[in-house]
Design a protein that fits this description.
Strand 5 and strand 6 form a beta hairpin. The two termini are 58 Å apart. This protein is an alpha+beta fold. The protein has a four-stranded antiparallel beta sheet, with no helix packed on it.
Length: 423
């Protein structure tokens, strides 16, 4: 019975351990590929594009053929339908009618051009949506990555603080250390535990965010690759041609300008006449002759019937002009944002170099010297704690700058619409 109880107690822990050890490690590229393949917004956009493509296949559509049948010029008195005794033919006839309006070739071409352009806007919007989702994923991935590196620093410094507390407690018992320094170090251990809890919770939040972007179970456990690359975009072209070619939202505006022009062309086709043909066949009653009608028809676009078409054409032309101005405004905003982010990245890299080559090495050498002096009882615990705090603060500040650089890089890659999954 005791063995059964032990098995029931151990089994959940063994499952949890197996789940933890088998957690998938995903690189940034794997995360981005999963988002591309599974995010509902992209699947929805793909379905919309296919729907517009399907609708465009019916652009060259004729008006339906009209059929009619019924009595034609037939008296209400049915007795007159038959041939009379005096040899007079009956009156009235039964008629079959068919009518077809022929579409203008220019109108069919304009409609096909308009409907064929609709899907192109959807494609560019889908690319822009994907770029937005990838940028969101990069920000969450970067926060997780830096969070893991912060945990390494926090755990290392917590271990040093705990050793400091144990040593201070022993020295206080020996009468060679102040009680205030001991309490200060003890409080720092608690603060380190708090920071570890905050950072761990932040990592869990980023895992949930990435799982959501990948359209997976939000609580699915996985880990990430903590390697990162800081790229140099100083030589990246930031001219008008580069933005027009690379930014899908600018290309989408171009497509909308083309749609407005196609709509204007389609509206102008209403200023041209429509032609049609009608044929009627009449079967005479009471010996009357069979007869027919064959008529050509034309709709004449007179001034009072073309106002709407002219107004629509003018409106679409003005809409195209507005879109061109919108493109210029958007491009200027993007160029300004790109230059700002380049400046931010340059300053961030300079700060990182200072932390790596000057600030942290200097603070670490000071800590080593104070640690030695503390061991030889030439420095007190307050001095030792202050030296540790300087190193600790510098390491966390360096990681904060790293996160700012990675996020600025992600924003710049979004502005330039660069595939950041490729190192």
């Amino acid at each position: 019975m005791n063995m059964d109880k032990a098995r029931y107690i151990l089994l959940p822990w063994l499952c949890l351990f197996a789940l933890h050890t088998s957690a998938q490690t995903m690189s940034l590229g794997m995360v981005l590929d999963s988002i591309t393949a599974h995010h509902p917004a992209l699947l929805m956009a793909d379905a919309d594009i296919k729907a517009m493509d399907a609708e465009a296949k019916g652009a060259r559509n004729w008006m339906p053929t009209q059929l009619g049948t019924g009595f034609n010029m037939t008296p209400y008195d049915a007795s007159t339908w038959q041939k009379g005794a005096n040899g007079m033919n009956g009156m009235g006839s039964y008629m079959f009618s068919i009518q077809q309006m022929f579409p203008k070739a220019g109108q069919l071409n304009a409609n096909a051009d308009y409907m064929g352009r609709l899907a192109s806007v959807g494609r560019e919007d889908s690319v822009s949506t994907l770029a937005d989702l990838r940028a969101q994923a990069e920000v969450s991935y970067n926060a997780w990555l830096v969070g893991l590196k912060k945990l390494e620093v926090l755990r290392k410094d917590k271990a040093l603080l705990q050793a400091m507390v144990v040593n201070a407690e022993q020295r206080y018992r020996d009468g060679s250390s102040a009680l205030g320094a001991y309490y200060k170090a003890t409080a720092a251990v608690g603060e380190a535990d708090r920071m570890i809890s905050v950072v761990s919770a932040g990592i869990d939040q980023q895992r949930i965010a990435l799982n959501t972007l990948m359209a997976r179970d939000p609580l699915l456990v996985f880990t990430i690759d903590t390697t990162y690359v800081i790229r140099d975009y100083a030589t990246q072209p930031l001219d008008t041609a580069a933005f027009n070619a690379d930014r899908s939202d600018l290309r989408a505006i171009d497509r909308r300008i083309g749609i407005a022009a196609a709509q204007a062309d389609l509206a102008r086709t209403d200023l041209k006449p429509d032609f049609g043909l009608r044929y009627d066949h009449m079967i005479g009653f009471g010996g009357s002759y069979d007869m027919f009608n064959l008529m050509a028809m034309v709709s004449v676009p007179l001034p009072w019937s073309t106002r709407s078409a002219k107004a629509r054409a003018t409106g679409f032309e003005l809409r195209g002009q507005a879109l061109r101005e919108q493109k210029v405004m958007k491009r200027n905003e993007l160029m300004g944002a790109a230059h700002q982010l380049l400046a931010e990245l340059k300053a961030g890299r300079e700060q990182m170099d200072l932390y790596a080559n000057v600030i942290i090495p200097g603070a670490q050498r000071n800590l080593d010297a104070v640690r030695l002096g503390y061991a030889q009882q030439t420095d007190d615990l307050f001095t030792y704690y202050d030296a540790w705090e300087t190193v600790y603060s510098a390491e966390l500040a360096r990681l904060d700058r790293l996160l700012e650089i990675l996020n600025a890089q992600a924003r710049l890659e979004r502005v330039l619409q660069i595939n950041s999954a490729t190192p």
